[in-house]
Design brief:
Radius of gyration: 20 Å
Distance between the termini: 38 Å
Helix content: under 10%
Number of strands: 25
CATH architecture: 6 Propeller
Order of helices and strands: HEEEEEEEEEEEEEEEEEEEEEEEEEHH
Shape: globular
Structural class: mainly beta
Largest sheet: 8 strands, mixed
CATH superfamily: TolB, C-terminal domain
CATH topology: Neuraminidase
Number of domains: 1
Oligomer: single chain
Amino acid sequence: MSALAALGALAAQGACLPPPADREAPASTTARIVTTERGPRGGRLVLVDEDGARLADLTPIEPKATIDTNPAWSADGRWIAFASSRGRSALDQTSLWLVGARRGSSMERLTREPSVDRDPRWSPDGRVVVYASSRGVTFDLWTVTLRPSDRGPPRPGRPHRLTATDHLDELAPSVSPDGRTVVYMGLDRTTQRSRLYTIPLAGGRGRPLTDGPADLTPSFSPDGRTIAFAAPVKGRGDIDLWTVDAAGHHRRLVVGEPLSDETGPVWSSDGRFLFATSVLRSVASGLPILSSLAFVDLSERPIVLRALHDPAQVVPRLGAALAPAALDATRLRRQPPYAAAVRRAILEAHERATEGRPDRDRSDGGAR
């Protein structure tokens, strides 16, 4: 494990390792994972299989630097909602978009306000997307209702505010499987403490669920009984994955990898797997070295954190959307434990750099 710290010098570019060349998915392949792949020109959504292989682009190349993030898969498997800087003046300005869950699908912009809109999540019936927006003094939660269309993606209605506070940034919503409750993180702008809250999807008053002081990015389990979230371990500086029950009780550490930060947990449809973004940091400087998709099989004993890297070449990945279908458990369990996977990834990237191989930016198809 300590050998990972020595590898930090090999990754002076942080998470900007060179991505591999484009590959097309075989016609018979069904992708069940969507993630953002980062590169010098921002990042876009790609389809990934359970071996980590990049199958195809989901969102297209833009002439200028663009980033597509926060993907969320609809319960019927047809659509991916995401946040994107497409059509905006800066990478940190994002609106909500919708794209079909197949390569080459048309896209629809859901929000057009000048605010920053992010963190979209679906209601289980697919009629509503809940998201965070900076329209007010702080980030508040909003909802937008989608109307089915015979000629493409669903059409958005007028957004409606769900929360309204002047001291909290309300972010990272997740809707319960029964469609009644939204859990989210509330970050106090004065104290910088964050904890989890719940609010009825139909509207009402937010209620604290956890005490904090740094509880982040909650996610309801498919049965609605458990909420996964990110939080630091007391006495350590890293962020790990935890669970509480839906009433906020029985807090339990699930992933405790001390060399990385795990955030943004997402459950598989059967509740067996928990995916997250894992950021490996240098022990010496604390700077990020590599962001990866990571996951645990909750049926495994002991639970092992594993990394899901592209077998062809390592590329920084963040965020995951999982299809409403069973994942291939056999292929996932073949993936190496996290520490071994990132060690190998960084060494391979270093070897390529010293061999003088040309970089190809897969976020723009290798174009220059």
